[in-house]
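Protein record
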Amino acid sequence: MGEKSELTPIRELEEEIGVKGFKNIRLLYVCESFFKFKETKNHQIAFYYLLQCPNNFPYFNKYNFAGIEKDKDIIYSWLNLNDIQNQPLKPEFLKTELTTITDGIKHIVEDENS
C-alpha cells in the first residue's frame, strides 16, 4: 500500500532481480480472482502491466537467472510464447492473453470456486 499500482512492478523488479531502468508502457489487464486459500475464500484484484526492459538488461540471453530474496532461492525463467500453454503459469488467463496482446485494457474474471 502507499504506491501507485503502475510503479509496483518496477519497484518489485528492482528489488527482486537488482536491475533498474524498467519502464511502464501501459496497463494490459485488470483481473478479479476468486479462490480458496487454506479454506478461506478470497477475492483478489490485480493489475498487469506491459513493461519495457532497460537496454542494459543483463538477462536477455539467460534462460534462467537467480533472484534476490531474503531466505528464499528464487529462479526466474523466460517462457517461450509458442509453448506457454504447457508451462506452470498462474493466473491461467495469461497463457492465452499474452499470445494476443491487444489495444486497450481487458477486465478478466477467474473463479476457481465455481
Notes: Residues 8-17 form the longest helix (10 residues). The two ends are 30 Å apart (CA to CA). The chain has two helices and five strands.
